[in-house]
């Protein structure tokens, strides 16, 4: 009988193990479903952000094209400021190059030169960002002036073509 009892105990133990394994499987399945739902939501957000980025890039390209068109149209106004910026940019590049060369001569290690080059690259990136900010500001001011000009044009079109006294006099004679 003892052998029979041990078999029953083993069967109960295996049954308990099976029950625990089934509970664990259900728990893992529910966690998996939650993660799948979260993944779907994140994929939706990702796609939404991609569309938003594409739209923003399209708007930026459109604005840059408009800015370039306005620069071509009103080139005389922006030519002086553009030349000044390019000269300033050339001078900063030259001075940055001299600084890197002089610091490279002071330091014997190759790592120092590499560090200086990386700093120069980051300075260049900052300068590009500054130039981009300036371009965005210029674009915004051009947009404002365009809006102002369009408003003035619309107001000018809405004004009567004849002076008030003449226009009302003619209509009054025609109705009598």
Automatic annotation (TrEMBL):
Give the range the annotation lists for the signal sequence.
Answer: none
Q: Which domain of life is it from?
A: Eukaryota
Give start-end ranges for the coiled-coil region(s): 4-73
Alphabetized, the UniProt keywords read: Coiled coil
Q: Basic and acidic residues: which segments have biased composition?
A: 111-131, 140-150
The record's InterPro entries line, in alphabetical order, gives: MAGUK_Signaling_Regulators
GO BP terms: negative regulation of hippo signaling
Record's keyword annotation contains Ribonucleoprotein:
no
Q: Which Gene3D superfamilies match?
A: 1.20.5.340
Cellular component GO terms, alphabetically?
A: plasma membrane
Identify the stretch(es) annotated as Disordered: 107-176
Q: Which PANTHER family match?
A: DISKS LARGE HOMOLOG 5 (PTHR46360:SF1)
What protein am I looking at?
A: Uncharacterized protein
Which organism is this protein's natural source? Callosobruchus maculatus (Southern cowpea weevil)
Q: What is the lineage of its organism?
A: Eukaryota, Metazoa, Ecdysozoa, Arthropoda, Hexapoda
């Amino acid at each position: 009988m003892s052998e029979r009892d041990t078999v029953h105990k083993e069967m109960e133990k295996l049954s308990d193990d099976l029950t625990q394994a089934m509970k664990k499987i259900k728990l893992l399945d529910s966690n998996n479903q939650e993660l799948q739902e979260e993944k779907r939501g994140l994929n939706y957000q990702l796609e939404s952000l991609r569309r938003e980025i594409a739209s923003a890039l399209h708007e930026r390209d459109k604005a840059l094209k408009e800015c370039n068109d306005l620069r071509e149209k009103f080139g005389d106004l922006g030519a002086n400021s553009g030349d000044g910026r390019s000269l300033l940019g050339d001078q900063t590049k030259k001075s940055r190059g001299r600084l890197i060369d002089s610091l490279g001569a002071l330091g014997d290690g190759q790592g120092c030169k590499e560090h200086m080059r990386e700093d120069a690259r980051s300075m260049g990136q900052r300068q590009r960002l500054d130039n981009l900010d300036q371009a965005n500001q210029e674009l915004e001011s051009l947009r404002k002036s365009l809006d102002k000009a369009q408003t003035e044009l619309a107001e000018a079109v809405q004004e009567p073509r004849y002076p008030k006294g003449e226009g009302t006099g003619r209509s009054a004679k025609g109705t009598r």
